[in-house]
Each structure stands twice: as structure tokens, then as C-alpha cells.
């Protein structure tokens, strides 16, 4: 048995990029001390998310994948594989992106495809889903609202992703919001999407999220790790923290897919597009 220790983070990040990197350094140091080899940080952990979704507020700093901030993240990661959300500067366009670093380099990058509630006023949209190889296995990445669309995770699973990392800045309800985030309907939806996407694709699922408040948004935390059977094996609940779990990923996938293989048993010729 070869166990992989993985972790998903619920933490607050803001426009103070230096402060964000200091916070990330502390999280990575603590995770490394705990033996973590794969770490998922939230959407927009480098520079913060949007204070509102109408494009009126101050925008996050746009960072180049080959710039000094991502180079610093690579340095901090060391021999760990780390996924972190940021605003990507790409030829004058801004993307809501997540980068995966490790082994001294950028391993993968994903630009958020699905944009809710006028997020397109602040970001261009990505146009693809692709898995990639890392020192700890083949990974796919999604950002927040991407996970509401089954095709997103399915595309990654069909591309061989064994682990899907979904980073989020997922807020609670804006109307009729309960005092306790555990009772919030958007917390419930966040958790349901995580479990459903893991189960239907029979993959390991890491879900990181922002915590606290930023502008008009209050984030639901709920960082978690879900096994290929759709069972939550570690979670922060609706408070900040880090969810850690040990899984033998090949064995877990094999057990889940042995009798009922959801990818194997597909009938794409019968599906209406």
C-alpha cells in the first residue's frame, strides 16, 4: 500500500499579495511538517477574489505564470505539489486561473471556463479542460462554478485524471442567509457538487475554498477530500482550516471501478448533444 497524504485548505486571502504569500508559506510549512505531498489552496489565494461581481470594484493583481510571484510559489512548494488560484495576465487578457507547481516548475494551469453572475466583467473565459502528469499522479483542475457542470469533471476524468482539484471562492447565500453557514443552501450545494463529481467520475476529489468575508461576499469554507465512492474522508466544515487525508489513490480507484465502472460503462453513442 502506497499512501498519499493530501490536504485542502479553507483560508482567507485578500489584495495584500505579500501577506498572501506569507500566509501560503506558513500553510505549506505546516503541511510539509505533517507529511503532505499534495496541497490545494483556494481560488484567488494570490491577490484575493472580487469584492463584487459587477466589475465595479478594484481588480485583483494580474500575474504572469512566468513571473516572480509564481516563481516564489514554486520555491515555497519545493518537493510538494501545490495548486493555487490567481488572476493570470495573458497578453493583456485577465483570466481567473489556477496553477499547479512542483518539482521546481509549473506542472499545469487551468483558466476558469464557467463564469457566474457577471464574473465576465472582470475576466476572460477559458476554453478547455486537460489533465496533466505530476510526481504524485495525473491531476485535473477546476475552478469554483466549473464544478456545477458535469461535463467539466467528466472531461478531466476521460483525460486520465486520477485526482481532481477544485479551488473555489464559493460564497454563501446573498438572500435569506442563515446566521450559521452550516444551514446555508449554498453550503449544501457546494458539498453536493463535490460528492457528486467524485462519485460519478470515481476519482479522488480535493475541494479548497476561501473563508471569511471579502467585500459583499461571505465564503462557506467547507474544504474537503472526497474518495471515489463519494464519501467525504476529511473536511474543515464551515470554519477555516486544513482537511488532511491519506489515500492509496490507485487502490481507491480500482476498488471503486471494479464492479461498476462509470467511465468504462459509458454509452456516448446514445447521448444527445
From TrEMBL:
Pfam families: CN_hydrolase. Residues 4-249 form the CN hydrolase domain. Keywords: Hydrolase. The keyword Hydrolase applies. GO terms for molecular function: hydrolase activity, acting on carbon-nitrogen (but not peptide) bonds, in linear amides. InterPro entries: Aliph_Amidase/BUP (IPR050345), C-N_Hydrolase (IPR003010), C-N_Hydrolase_sf (IPR036526). The keyword Transmembrane does not apply. Signal peptide: none annotated. This is Putative amidohydrolase. It comes from Pseudosporangium ferrugineum. The lineage of its organism: Bacteria, Bacillati, Actinomycetota, Actinomycetes, Micromonosporales.
Amino acid at each position: 500500500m502506497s499512501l498519499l497524504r493530501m490536504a485542502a485548505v479553507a483560508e482567507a486571502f485578500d489584495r495584500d499579495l505579500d501577506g498572501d504569500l506569507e500566509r501560503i508559506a506558513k500553510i505549506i510549512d505546516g503541511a510539509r511538517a505533517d507529511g503532505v505531498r499534495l496541497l490545494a489552496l483556494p481560488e484567488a489565494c494570490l491577490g484575493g477574489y472580487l469584492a463584487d461581481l459587477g466589475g465595479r470594484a478594484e481588480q485583483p493583481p494580474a500575474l504572469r505564470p512566468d513571473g516572480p510571484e509564481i516563481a516564489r510559489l514554486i520555491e515555497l512548494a519545493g518537493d510538494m505539489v501545490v495548486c493555487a488560484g490567481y488572476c493570470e495576465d495573458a497578453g493583456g487578457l485577465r483570466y481567473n486561473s489556477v496553477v499547479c507547481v512542483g518539482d521546481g516548475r509549473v506542472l499545469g494551469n487551468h483558466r476558469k471556463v464557467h463564469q457566474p453572475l457577471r464574473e465576465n466583467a472582470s475576466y476572460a473565459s477559458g476554453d478547455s479542460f486537460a489533465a496533466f502528469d505530476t510526481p504524485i499522479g495525473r491531476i485535473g483542475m477546476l475552478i469554483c462554478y466549473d464544478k456545477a457542470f458535469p461535463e467539466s469533471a467528466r472531461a478531466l476524468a476521460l483525460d486520465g485524471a486520477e485526482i481532481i482539484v477544485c479551488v473555489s471562492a464559493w460564497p454563501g447565500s446573498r438572500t435569506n442567509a442563515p446566521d450559521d453557514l452550516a444551514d446555508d443552501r449554498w453550503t449544501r450545494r457546494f458539498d453536493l457538487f463535490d460528492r457528486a463529481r467524485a462519485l460519478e467520475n470515481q476519482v479522488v476529489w480535493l475541494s479548497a475554498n476561501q473563508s471569511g468575508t471579502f467585500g459583499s461576499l461571505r465564503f462557506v469554507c467547507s474544504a474537503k477530500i472526497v474518495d471515489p465512492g463519494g464519501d467525504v474522508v476529511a473536511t474543515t466544515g464551515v470554519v477555516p482550516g486544513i482537511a488532511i487525508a491519506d489515500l492509496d489513490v490507485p487502490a481507491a480507484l480500482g476498488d471503486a471501478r471494479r464492479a461498476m465502472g462509470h467511465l468504462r460503462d459509458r454509452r456516448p453513442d446514445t447521448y444527445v448533444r
